Amino acid sequence: MEMANFRGKIHTFPMLRYAILFSLGIIAGRYIDALSVREWSIFLALIALAALFSYRRNSFLCDCLLMVSLVLMGSVRCSFSLIGSHEGEEEAEITLWERGKQFSIETKEAIIGELKETGMAEEPFAVASAMTFGYKEELTKELRNDYSLAGASHILALSGMHLSIIFLMLTVLFRWRSVVTSVIILTIIWTYVFITGMPPSLLRAATMLTIWEILRKMGRFQNPLNVLGVTMLLLLAIEPEMLWNISFQLSFLAVAAILIYAKEIEEMVESPGEDLCFENKRKHWTRKSLERVWQLTSVSIAAQIGTMPVAAYYFGTIPIMFFITNLVVIPLSAVIICGTVLLLLTTLLPWALPSSVVAWVMSWIIDMQNNFLHFFSSLPFTSISGVHINLVQLYLIYIIIIAATVVYVRVKR
Questions:
Q1: Residue 256, by phi and psi: left (phi above 0), alpha (psi -120 to 50) or beta?
Q2: What is the pLDDT of residues 50-103, one digit of tens each?
Q3: Number of neighbouring beta carbons within 10 Å of residue 44
Q4: Which entry of 46, 108, 218, 220 is 20 to 30 Å from 311 by CA?
Q5: CA distances from 396 to 150, 284, 315, 389, 400 (A)
Q6: Are 396 and 155 in contact (CB under 8 A)?
Q7: Which stretch of DSSP H or E encloses residue 384?
């Protein structure tokens, strides 16, 4: 990657910066109890007025005041949210949101019941229902431990990866990409998010896909980090308490790290020269396969850079062999999710043979994945357990990562 491209990536995502400032305001609004909504709003009005008067006179001062305004906006929104939660505790009336959540849970339980009736084995059913619908009640402690130690626990939690697989399935099904098909695809995506209980990671992925699809239809390209920032702003403006959700934190940190670091890590290893003549198709296929493997490894390493400190803070475990296990479990995830959807569709047929065959194949594939991860989890030095860091240490680690990134940019210059 050219140096200019990397510097452009770092310096041209204002929406992500705004989202971070808004998040800082939410944190301030939650922990500074001495100020009320009215006082936060007065501060916001004064700062915004000062920014208006400094516009075109002192651009640096105006930018600083606008950034302070974003922090205050986050504080105001958080204060309103806290007041609403206290009022909600006093009122026993069921809100429309709660009714929607209840309907979502009932729908998911009905689908899980249909999946259970297909005849899948116990452990394969537990993994398939967790990966496809976020239903983890059937997962045993041993299974969770194997996936965690092998660095593959992320595939058991619904994330943007799972939604991306479904999105790719739909784009293959609807090859003609018109406005109508885009609306159909996004409707199916949001229906799936609703059925699974609207976890923050899927809300993030669905919102990003929606914004990206709208921009694509408008013929406008946007930096992915800007799209990530807009998504973060929208979700936190709607529900500030989402900031404290572990899934929300891991999802945004993983995507941000992938967008910033993955390409740089990938290009640290030179691919075979394009000028070489690959007359042997087997050699050409081998080179392409190795490139794909390294691309997937680069994405896994980048995601770990963003999420490993938070994972160590919450769970006390640092996986080491994740870059190997992800080469297997991520492709298998696509097969398992597609196979689970196909299995549910075969239950609609009037005869049971197709669903029985698909259930047997799915059980075999998931058992193979479970055995593979169990083998890796039993190896020595697969992960580092007992890591305990406090909040200050967590912030220091991220400061070091950011500082190392800045130094890398300057050295490469």
A1: alpha
A2: 666 665 666 666 677 777 777 777 777 777 666 555 444 444 455 565 677 778
A3: 20
A4: 108
A5: 27, 45, 18, 10, 6
A6: no
A7: strand 383-385
Q: How far is CA 32 from the centre of its chain?
A: 29
Is the confidence at residue 362, as pLDDT, over 50?
yes
Helix axes 224-238, 59-90, angle to 10 degrees: 40
Kind and range of the H or E element at 323?
Answer: helix 322-346
Helices 281-315, 391-412: inter-axial angle, 10-degree rounding: 140
| Per-residue exposure over 200-210, b if at least 16 CB sit within 10 Å of its own CB, e if not | bbbbbbbbbbb
Q: Return the ∠ at Cα 90 (arms to 85 and 92), rounded to 5°.
A: 100
Range scoring the smallest mean pLDDT among 2-6, 123-127, 345-349, 384-388: 2-6
Kindly report the number of other CB atoms within 10 A of residue 161's CB atom: 21
Burial class (CB in 10 A: 0-12, 13-18, 19+), 43: middle
- Look at 24-28, 78-82, 215-219 and tell me which has the smallest mean pLDDT: 78-82
Picking from 302, 223, 220, 224, the residue whose alpha carbon sits closest to that of residue 257 is 302
Q: What is the pLDDT of residue 91?
A: 45
Is 49 in contact with 96 (CB distance < 8 Å)? no
pLDDT of residue 226: 86
What predicted TM-score, i.e. pTM, was given to this entire model? Answer: 0.80
Of 264, 154, 164, 157, give the one whose Cα is nearest residue 208.
164
> DSSP code of 222?
-
pLDDT tens-place string over residues 259-283: 888 888 888 776 544 444 445 555 6
Question: Residues 236, 22: contact at Cβ < 8 Å?
Answer: yes
Distances (CA, A) of 306 to 207, 248, 255, 269, 364: 21, 13, 8, 21, 34
401: enclosing H helix or E strand? helix 391-412
